Amino acid sequence: MRTVLGVAGGIAAYKAAHIIRRLRELDHSVKVVPTANALNFVGAPTFEALSGQTVTTDVFDEIDTVNHVRIGQDAELVIIAPATANIIAKIAAGIADDLLTATVLTTTAEVVVAPAMHTEMWQNPATVANIATLRARGVHVLDPAIGRLTGPDSGPGRLPEPEDIVAYALSVTEAAGASAAEPGTFSAESNTSTAETGPGSDSLTGRRIVISAGGTREALDPVRFLGNRSSGKQGIALAKAAHAAGAEVELVAANIDSGLLSDLPAGITITPVESTLELQTAMHASQPAADALIMAAAVADFRPAETTGSKMKKTGDDGLTLRLVQNPDILRGLVDERVGAQIIVGFAAETGDAQSTALDYARAKFARKGVDLLVFNDVSNDRAFGHDHTAVQIIGSADGQTTIGEEFQGSKDDVSQKVIAALTEQLTDLESTP
């Protein structure tokens, strides 16, 4: 495959070398097109040695072959990694003042953008709007990873790992190839009701769904934490179901076992987080470009008021007193910052008590949170966490009245099909509303 690798001028440019090597291992012909600033981080000889092709940044080089047009025309795949806030802004504005931006403007190939920048830049309203513009035009934009940035800074903005970028790019081209190879195909099964069979294979095509999963951990010291028993299995099943329905999926994964994550299909973006505050940051960063948000993660209501820098020691037989502070209500915050006709789905794992049933508490949560759908499961007597079988009821509204679906029992994959079907129906209803 003829692949163009664009490299913008950020500290993560060194990772482009690993991307080139991986693509070459997969028999790609790789044409590296850096910006002039990128060459301040990695020199042209490195790119040329790894790719086996000449490297230039100027539209006036190789004029005899009309290089600034030919490269984009010949490309079968374009990857930009790292993509800085500057290059993203140029592409969104249609600027073509160097070889890379001219290549993007002329290509008809799939374009994959892997951003890398400081958190403040990623969350700036200008960048948020530019990312939304690119996605609306069909450009495939990965969300950056959360982690260590330049210097002491840490947060969302880190370039995803090279192997993840390559895997995502290949999944994009495979999906595009399958779509082109089978235009107008029709399955008799796709003519049945999604309420009965789950979402169709293309019912969420063109949609971006962000799903949180797992359980947050609140650090007490470098060794201990306050956590919960969520395995993340339900969120993973939801991500698979949304992906199978054609959606572009980001999974914000809170402390999920790597073995479970390895089962996800290629093309699902994984954003790892640990604490509730990290989860909040990741969800709000991804919200502006999402058609729907599904909050399936089990979020800690409280966190320690103080975290020690070293392991706490026993101090006799007096025990330990912890002072806790309340965590932000992420779900309510997402509802308050809803973007346009965005659909927001919450989960309620409840138990009953002497005052009310578990369903009563779920119904009250639905009214309090303001979500479009609430997936309720009764977790009394260890009925849900860690198991592959569960039972849920989907709470919604119609004509201003709360509706409560019949209890649905099955595997977490079955439940996910049910939830994605309900979400698809919500999105379809919005489109048909005048």
Automatic annotation (TrEMBL):
Cofactors that this protein relies on: FMN; Mg(2+)
Keywords: Decarboxylase, Flavoprotein, FMN, Ligase, Lyase, Magnesium, Metal-binding, Multifunctional enzyme
Reaction catalyzed: N-[(R)-4-phosphopantothenoyl]-L-cysteine + H(+) = (R)-4'-phosphopantetheine + CO2; (R)-4'-phosphopantothenate + L-cysteine + CTP = N-[(R)-4-phosphopantothenoyl]-L-cysteine + CMP + diphosphate + H(+)
Region Phosphopantothenate--cysteine ligase, annotated ranges: 209-434
Region span, Phosphopantothenoylcysteine decarboxylase: 1-208
Entry EC no(s): 4.1.1.36, 6.3.2.5
Gene3D superfamilies tied to this protein: CoaB-like, Flavin prenyltransferase-like
Ranges of residues in domain DNA/pantothenate metabolism flavoprotein C-terminal: 204-424
PANTHER family, per the entry: HOMO-OLIGOMERIC FLAVIN CONTAINING CYS DECARBOXYLASE FAMILY, PHOSPHOPANTOTHENOYLCYSTEINE DECARBOXYLASE
Protein name: Coenzyme A biosynthesis bifunctional protein CoaBC
Biological source species: Brevibacterium spongiae
Name of encoding gene: coaBC
